TrEMBL record, chain A:
Keyword line: Cell membrane, Membrane, NAD, Quinone, Transmembrane, Transmembrane helix, Ubiquinone
Residues passing through the membrane, by range: 6-22, 29-47, 53-77, 89-110, 143-165
Native source species: Candidatus Jettenia ecosi
Gene Ontology CC annotations of this record: plasma membrane
Reported function: NDH-1 shuttles electrons from NADH, via FMN and iron-sulfur (Fe-S) centers, to quinones in the respiratory chain. Couples the redox reaction to proton translocation (for every two electrons transferred, four hydrogen ions are translocated across the cytoplasmic membrane), and thus conserves the redox energy in a proton gradient.
EC number: 7.1.1.-
Record carries keyword Cell membrane: yes
Top-level taxon of origin: Bacteria
EC main group: translocase
Major subcellular site: membrane
Subcellular location: Cell membrane
Name of this protein: NADH-quinone oxidoreductase subunit J
Length: 169, 487
């Protein structure tokens, strides 16, 4: 059962991602992106990472996508305008390198040697404590410093938004 | 119910970072509270400099001790201290040269100084980070500040373009870095560098292609930040479009920070697999030096020329990484310090000689500087000689150490190519001197963008370049002590 859901969701996310790139209408592209993000959220649930799945939907599929759509609609892009490829000769090397990277990853994943290390948080342990609680614990104990520095990061981003976008300073 | 255990935690270890963050916010507050009519905003530059000095004093207090804090994810050791001093020095010098420039370009906003200080926080976190998460967050804080600073000349199209280009490509490169980190985490179960090293020592790495893939992707991500070929495409446009002070800032600080992270990750976490990454870095070093130097010859814009020269210098530093011995590692520290002085000095002269709107930054605009303003020309010549690696300057000693490290490790071919590249670079560095002294002036240099602060910066750079060139042993000794921790 789980395997079926995995393959269906994986196929949906990849197909939607391909459509996202090839769709000419930016609004459709954005909607396909939502589909990709939601199906990836389903994959997170399969991995028993419910918190990440919720964050994925709330933050990415929710907040960020709304922003995307706002920007697209405010800019009222001319849909019919064909995108010109500024560097046409990059297509073939890009395709070649992409296939190369893909096949390297496939070979690695197929080889029997690959095995991750068993972490200290087994599913039984996660289930007993609770997913969100565990993440919260880690954020405020082991990873307190990166968590706090993130506030400086957000502060900088806010300054940047004002600096670069405000009409008159 | 999960047990919440508060980790060992030493607030002293992050005191310099807290100081810079505090001063950054004070600068913003003073900027808002001071009246608009004041306009001069001299105070902000002095405040930021004070922040730098206080942070340096606080950092100095912990010299000689090795201290892990925040669950061993943050290291205060001689290595990170050395780099912290480089960051604080380069930030200080950049603030000194900024003062008159941002007034001339009418971008004198308080956010400028605050963002520079925040960016320095990111660099310090990268140098001190003992796990991949801290290094990543530090990189983001540093990069995002610099994306904004690059676009600071808001009315100039070239500056906007540079900012957007840097942001898009930088975000893309960050994706590679994160993918690499997640692969490493997936295969080792750890993001702490020492634990990764422990895993590799236990299980070996050849049997784990995912780990090697992760390592390669991390090298790509950091290779972008140090501007190595083939991840260099952004450098010339961004360096040209950014305000000149920010060009000086990002050719030194972020590069040093990325090298700090590079060395620590490769030596501490992947030290056992050095046969694997040495091959990658070897090719990167070769391409970076050669492309940087050869393309620099064709440049007519001084900022673009210095951009390619900065690519070439990253190539020399990568040679030291390939060597991967004591001398190589300590020469990286030495060379970055030397490069800080000579590059910021050279760009300071470019700022003084250019006019409002970054006019007159073509190479031929320097014609006759030697007759009109001999002092500036002498300083510029010194920096150019140092970058070309001619004694008795810091650049010579730095290159000498790097090439001898490569020879010591048996990479004689790479050292030879490095020397050949160094010879190529002499051409375009000396061309500026030739134009300054042997051509008649074609324009009036006045008004020069002078202020006491920029003069102090140039004097400091000249002293630094000469001091490191003539008495290198003391600094080299400190550098050698700093890298002991990596082994």
């Amino acid at each position: 059962m789980e395997a079926y859901i995995f393959y269906i969701m994986a196929a949906v996310s990849v197909t939607a991602a391909v459509y996202l790139i090839f769709e000419k209408n930016p609004v459709y592209s954005a909607l396909y992106l939502i589909l990709t993000l939601v199906s990836i959220a389903a994959l997170y649930i399969l991995l028993e990472a419910q918190f990440i799945a919720a964050v994925q939907i709330i933050v990415y599929a929710g907040a960020i996508m709304v922003l995307f759509l706002f920007v697209i609609m405010l800019l009222s892009l001319n849909i019919k305008e064909e995108l010109k490829d500024a560097i046409p000769f990059q297509k073939i090397p890009a395709l070649f390198m992409g296939i190369l990277l893909f096949s390297v990853l496939c070979i690695i994943l197929k080889s029997k040697f690959v095995q991750g290390k068993q972490g200290e948080y087994t599913s039984a342990y996660v289930a007993s404590v609770g997913n969100t609680k565990l993440i919260g614990n880690l954020l405020f104990t082991d990873y307190l410093l990166p968590f706090e520095i993130t506030s400086i990061l957000l502060f900088v981003a806010a300054i940047g938004a004002i600096m670069l976008a405000k009409r008159k300073l | 119910m999960a047990n919440v255990s508060i980790m060992t935690f030493n607030i002293l270890s992050i005191l310099p970072i807290l100081t810079l963050a505090g001063f950054g916010m004070i600068v913003l507050l003073v900027d808002i509270l001071s009246s608009r009519k004041l306009g001069e905003k001299n105070l902000l530059a002095y405040l930021s400099l004070m922040g730098i000095i206080v942070a340096a004093i606080l950092a100095r207090n912990s010299t000689g001790t090795t201290l892990f804090s925040f669950n061993e994810s943050f290291a205060i050791d001689n290595y990170s201290l050395f780099f912290n001093f480089i960051f604080l020095l380069s930030t200080g010098l950049v603030i000194l040269i900024s003062h008159s420039y941002i007034k001339r370009e009418e971008i004198n906003h308080g956010e400028y100084y605050a963002l520079i200080l925040f960016s320095t926080i990111g660099m310090m976190l990268m140098a001190s980070g003992a796990d991949l998460l801290n290094i990543y967050i530090g990189l983001e804080v540093m990069s995002i500040s610099i994306y904004i600073l690059t676009g600071f000349k808001r009315s100039k199209l070239i500056s906007n373009e540079a900012s957007l280009k840097y942001f898009l490509l930088g975000a893309f490169a960050t994706g590679f870095l994160l993918y690499g980190i997640s692969l490493v985490y997936g295969s080792t179960g750890a993001i702490n560098l020492k634990q990764i090293a422990g895993f590799i020592a236990d299980k070996g790495s050849i049997s784990n292609p995912l780990l090697l893939m992760g390592m390669a992707l991390i090298i790509i991500g950091l290779g972008f930040k140090v501007a190595s070929v083939p991840f260099h495409a952004w450098v010339p446009d961004v360096y040209e479009g950014a305000p000149t002070t920010i060009t000086a800032f990002m050719s030194v600080g972020p590069k040093a920070a990325a090298f700090a992270a590079f060395l620590r990750i490769l030596m501490t976490a992947f030290g056992a697999t050095h046969y694997e990454w040495q091959k990658i870095i070897y090719i990167l070093a070769l391409l970076t030096m050669t492309v940087g130097n050869v393309v620099a010859i064709a440049q007519t814009n001084v900022k673009r020329m210095l951009a390619y020269s900065s690519i070439a210098h990253a190539g020399y530093l990568l040679i030291a990484l390939v060597a991967a011995n004591d001398m190589g590692m300590s020469s990286v520290l030495f060379y970055i310090l030397a490069y800080t002085f000579m590059n910021i000095g050279a760009l300071a002269i470019v700022i003084i000689v250019s006019q409002k709107g970054d006019e007159f930054i073509q190479i031929h605009d320097f014609a006759g500087l030697g007759f009109k303003h001999p002092g500036l020309a002498v300083a510029m010549s010194l920096f150019m000689l140092s970058m070309a690696g001619i004694p008795p300057t810091a650049g010579f000693v730095g290159k000498f150490y790097i090439f001898s490290a490569a020879i010591k490790s048996g990479y004689i071919g790479l050292a030879v190519i490095g020397v050949i590249n160094s010879v190529i670079s002499v051409f375009y560095y000396l061309r500026i001197m030739v134009i300054m002294y042997m051509k008649e002036p074609t324009r009036d240099f006045n008004p020069l963008t002078l202020s006491p602060l920029i003069v102090v910066a140039i004097v400091l750079s000249v002293i630094g370049t000469l001091h490191l060139g003539i008495f290198p042993s003391k600094i080299m000794e400190i550098a050698q002590q700093s890298i002991l921790i990596l082994k």
